[in-house]
């Protein structure tokens, strides 16, 4: 609809490109990348009040207003309203702030939040949900980091969404990372297990196919 923004929670390839062009993500935020976030919108579009796991958003272009309330606050009366209408109701919202390009907003778990874009073209990137070093390296396809993480990782490690590392490599299209995992005997066993993925039992090859990573599918089939 005209009053909504485009949100993606599996924009791994975009995050890989941004990682190559920007300074390292601060340590406090690096652990919150189980799901990479990409937000695109034009002026006077936004997202209604909702809440989820702790997350962060770095504003790349344009300004965005955030309307915030702590978890214990009852925000039911505001649900279903046009997000940008909250600018006129600011006295009724517990807190609000405007995030400019180059600034980062961190949001603790389960905080209510809604947003409104102030400029013609707004872009934000971030992450949601706590992750492990292996999962993070797979998502960014950072092979040196993955090698280092494997020295302390366990094959049964899961991220906050209960995904094994191989599934994240598959979602990110990181063929070399997946091959590296599968070269480790403990991780190789997970390719045959119907490891739980958000409760639906998807295997890594299903995740790769769903995200359109043909080379990853071919590699997993050959295994």
TrEMBL record:
Organism: Noctiluca scintillans (Sea sparkle)
Start and end residues of each JmjC domain: 11-157
ANK-type repeats, residues: 200-223
Transmembrane domains' residue ranges: none
Keyword Disulfide bond set for record: no
InterPro entries: Ankyrin_rpt, Ankyrin_rpt-contain_sf, Cupin_8, JmjC_dom, JMJD6_ArgDemeth/LysHydrox
Pfam families linked to this entry: Ank_4 (PF13637), Cupin_8 (PF13621)
This protein's name: JmjC domain-containing protein
Keyword Lyase: no
GO MF term (any one): cis-regulatory region sequence-specific DNA binding
GO cellular component, as recorded: nucleus
Keywords associated with the record: ANK repeat
């Amino acid at each position: 609809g005209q009053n909504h923004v485009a949100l993606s929670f599996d924009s791994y390839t975009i995050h890989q490109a941004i990682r190559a062009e920007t300074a390292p993500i601060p340590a406090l935020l690096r652990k919150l990348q189980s799901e990479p976030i990409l937000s695109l919108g034009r002026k006077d579009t936004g997202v209604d009040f909702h809440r989820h796991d702790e997350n962060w958003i770095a504003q790349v272009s344009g300004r965005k207003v955030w309307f915030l309330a702590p978890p214990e606050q009852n925000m039911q009366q505001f649900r279903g309203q046009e997000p940008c209408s909250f600018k006129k109701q600011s006295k009724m919202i517990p807190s609000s702030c405007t995030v400019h390009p180059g600034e980062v907003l961190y949001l603790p778990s389960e905080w209510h939040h809604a947003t409104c874009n102030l400029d013609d073209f707004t872009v934000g990137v971030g992450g949601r949900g706590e992750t492990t070093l292996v999962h993070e390296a797979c998502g960014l396809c950072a092979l040196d980091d993955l090698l280092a993480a494997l020295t302390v990782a366990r094959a049964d490690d899961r991220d906050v969404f209960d995904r094994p590392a191989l599934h994240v490599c598959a979602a990110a299209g990181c063929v070399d990372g997946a091959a590296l995992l599968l070269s480790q005997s403990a991780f190789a066993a997970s390719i045959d297990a119907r490891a739980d993925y958000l409760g639906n039992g998807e295997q890594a090859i299903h995740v790769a196919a769903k995200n359109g990573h043909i080379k990853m599918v071919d590699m997993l089939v050959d295994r």
